[in-house]
Structures are given as C-alpha cells and as structure tokens.
Design goal:
The chain is built from 8 helices and 16 strands. The protein has helices at 32-36, 54-67, 76-89, 132-135, 165-176, 219-230, 275-288, 294-302; strands spanning 12-15, 18-21, 39-41, 44-47, 50-51, 95-103, 117-125, 139-148, 181-186, 191-194, 198-203, 206-210, 235-238, 250-255, 259-266, 269-270. Strand 15 and strand 16 (269-270) form a beta hairpin. The chain is globular. Bound molecules: pyridoxal-5'-phosphate.
C-alpha cells in the first residue's frame, strides 16, 4: 500500500493560530526558511491521546528559535494548547506531532531581521508496529563519513532544519548500502549520535553514553537515563571513542521516534541486545502508557 503524500491528506493543521484545511497549509516559494534554513522543528509522540513530554518539546522549539536568532511568537503554554487542539481535531490516539517555526518571505537575502516568524503544527496517526521481541532483534548501522559540527561552526543545541542536511545524506547512504541507519562521529572523531536518535552502550553492566556537547541532548535520552538510574544501573556520560565500541556488549538508540531501539551492529562492531535493552524497553513502554503482554507475545513468537 502506498503512503499518501504529506501534502495530500485529510485533516487540519494549526497554522499561525488558526486551524486550516490540511491541503491549504502552504507557504510561498520565496520563504526565507526554504533558501537559508531559518527553520526549527520538533517531533513529538502521542500515546493514548496524550502527547508525551509536551511542554519540554514546546520549550525546546522556542529555545531552538532563539539559537537561530528569532522569537517564536507563542508561549510554551500556547503551543501546548494548540498541539492538543490539533491532536483532538484530527482524532489522533497514537500518533506523531510535527511543530515547525520558520522565517517567512518578507525579505529575501541573508539578512532577514524583519521576516515574520510562522508556526505550524501538524499531526498524523503513527501506531507502534513492533513488539518488544521484534525490536530486540536490533538494527544495523554504518559509520557515516559526515561528522557532527563543532559548536563554533553551527548552532548545535538547536533542533534546526539545517543540521539535518548531513543526517539525510548519512541516512540515504546507509539505506542504499542495506543498513538501517548511520552513526555520526563528531568533529573531534568522538562517538556522537545517529541521524535522529542518541546512542548508548552497555559496558560490563554499566551504561555509557556520549556527553551531548555538540549534538541534541534528547528528551528521550534524559528520560531513559532517569529510568536506568531508577533500575539501579550506573550511567556514565563521557567522551567515547569509536574503538571503544569493541568493549560494549549491548547498544541502543533513544529518541521520540526510535523510543528505545536495540542495535546489533555499527560498522565492524557487533552487539547482542540483552537484559538492559529489554528492561529499558519495558520501562519506557510503561512510562508512555503502552501496554504489552510480554508473556503472551513470547508465547506467540514461540508458537
Ligand atoms: C539528531 C537527533 N538526535 C537526537 C534526537 C533525540 O531527541 P528526542 O529524544 O528529544 O526526540 C533526535 C530526535 O529528535 C534527533 O533528530
């Protein structure tokens, strides 16, 4: 079944304070954001009609705009309310939300001080297809040729559209070579993150993850660190060099879309998703309110 194009769907999109018909949520071809990447966005997940960590995402959208030198013209409270209205208007129970803020078309050039800042919020159904067992098979990543930039080179703390240029290039190359995703090192050659998710390694019973000093400190990353600590695991945030992946028994990604996704390969390094991945998938699913009958799923997969 082909997936309908994102500009041709039923429903409504919140656009600068109004609900508009999905197909009418348009912008002009001379929008500054399209030419100069003056755009920030969020990715949120709806579980059982509730948006997980909604306020954190609304606050991050505003903070991302500030990093790019503009003020999102709505408060986090207003964005929260608009998001919930959009989710309800589209009858989304389990889905994805995409808020986006960008510079408009009043000025066309590098300088864009007087452009209007637009904001839109779209959402669509996105149920979870994979049981914890299926997820435990793990995904395969290649090492990207691209590196996360130095904070002196790009506004790395912002969830800015421009920073995804190297993610798309990395992901396309990975897919073309038969991998699921790519891991990017940073400008110093240290392990950074995947194209849309943070990375963790289990090394001798401890959980290690790179310090987020030049990439997104994901909301899911912080949530999973808390969950791991509650389970009694030691979590170490530190510089991780790629060769150290040889010492990891388990590896997983975290992100709003990825949730907790076990990894079985990164380049030449292999991992075996095990108890830590399983425990954190269970805890994350419980926190977001997803219920899985693990015993029944195990019986079904054995049958
Ligand atoms: C590049 C990148 N890193 C990390 C993450 C994880 O962030 P979060 O857990 O806030 O979704 C994302 C997803 O938003 C991402 O796109």
């Amino acid at each position: 079944m082909s997936v309908p194009s994102f500009d041709d769907r039923d429903g409504v999109i919140w656009y600068d304070g109004q609900m508009v018909d999905w197909r009418d949520a348009k912008l002009h071809v001379l929008s500054h954001a399209l030419h100069y990447a003056s755009c920030v966005f969020e990715g949120e997940r709806v579980y059982g009609g509730k948006v997980f960590k909604l306020t954190e995402h609304s606050e991050r959208l505003i903070a991302s705009g500030k990093e790019l030198g503009f003020d999102v013209p709505f408060t986090a409270e207003e964005l929260d309310r608009a998001t919930l209205e959009t989710v309800q208007a589209n009858n989304i129970v389990d889905g994805y939300v995409r808020p986006v803020a960008w510079r408009g078309s009043e000025m066309m050039g590098v300088a864009a001080q007087k452009t209007k800042i637009h904001v839109a919020i779209a959402c669509w159904p996105w149920p979870s297809y994979f049981s914890p067992e299926a997820r435990l098979a793990g995904i395969r990543l290649m090492l990207s040729d691209w590196r996360r930039p130095d904070p002196r080179t790009a506004p790395v703390k912002s969830k800015a559209a421009g920073l995804y240029m190297i993610c798309t290039l990395s992901k396309h190359k990975a897919e073309n070579l038969g991998f699921d995703d790519a891991l990017l090192l940073d400008w110093r050659g240290q392990v950074a993150e995947a194209t849309g998710a943070n990375v963790f390694f289990v090394m001798n019973g401890e959980i290690h993850t790179p310090t987020p000093d030049c990439f997104l400190d994901g909301i899911t990353r912080r949530t999973v660190i808390e969950l791991a600590k509650k389970r009694g695991y030691t979590v170490v945030e530190r510089v991780i060099m790629p060769e150290e992946m040889a010492n990891a028994q388990e590896c997983f990604l975290t992100g709003t879309a990825a949730e907790v996704t076990p990894v079985r390969q990164i380049g030449d390094y292999t991992f075996t998703p095990g108890d830590v991945c399983k425990a954190l998938i269970e805890d994350y699913d419980a926190l977001v309110g997803r219920t899985h009958d693990l015993a029944a799923a195990a019986r079904n997969s054995a049958a």
